[in-house]
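Contributing new records

If you add data, match the layout below exactly. Sequence lines come first and carry their own label; structure lines follow with theirs. Keep one chain per record. Anything else will be rejected by the validation script.
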Amino acid sequence: MLELPEVETIRRDLDRELNGKKFKSVEAESMAVLGRYNNRKSFTAKFDGQKILGVERRGLTLLLPLDSDETLVVNLGPDTNLIRATNRATSIPNTEVVFTFTQHGGLRVVDPGGDGDLHLCPNDELDDEHPELAGLGIDPIEEPLSWTHFGELLMQRETKLKTLITDDAFLVGIGDLYADEILFTAGLRFDRLSNTLSTQEVRRLYRALVETLHEAIKYRGTTLEGGSYRDAFGEPGIYAEHLQVYGRDGDLSPRSRTPIQRVKFGGSWTYYCDTQV
């Protein structure tokens, strides 16, 4: 699944590109990403003349409020890409929906697996229709917090660190990849209990969390070898070049020059160095 740096990169791109754009037409190739509708026209006909007022994010869900007092809700699947393109650009395989604007091209929803979801929701029904968005934890990009408050939240729990920081009810949008990178940078083991950290370790973890996410956004997210993630301009993220442990088992650790380890934890692989305590 996409993690916070990838979705935030897409959001920032689209907010700059689409804010104020007016829809000219919408075409859907199939019902693959329109599962809430009975037919394609019941979705595509709703956009005539509407204007986009911005691009927002709650957790990993993108929200595009329109001047019709409705919001286009976009849930990205693991292979969903939102690609900005001119009207005459070459067609992109697996395009499911094409939004065309009255000026400056359009937006293509590319989803080979059909795992994404698009729908319009009245603004005053958004919280009722999506109660999961109200139960999200801290968004470390949108809601900066002090390291002391972060430490207080850690001390209130007795949970293994990787389990905690990948829990959307605690921190939004962090999965296996960024959790492993954050914990390596902080020098902390994935199975360390959260309420056992010293003050210095809390500060290291907080700094690693903030710096890792912002660095990943700076490099426009992570596209792993064979991965499908692309930014809004169709370009892969290059943070993979800066990964220190994730997917690098057997390579020498940049910290200790001993091999990076890989173990099963919580049903997925975890990568770490023997210097993490």
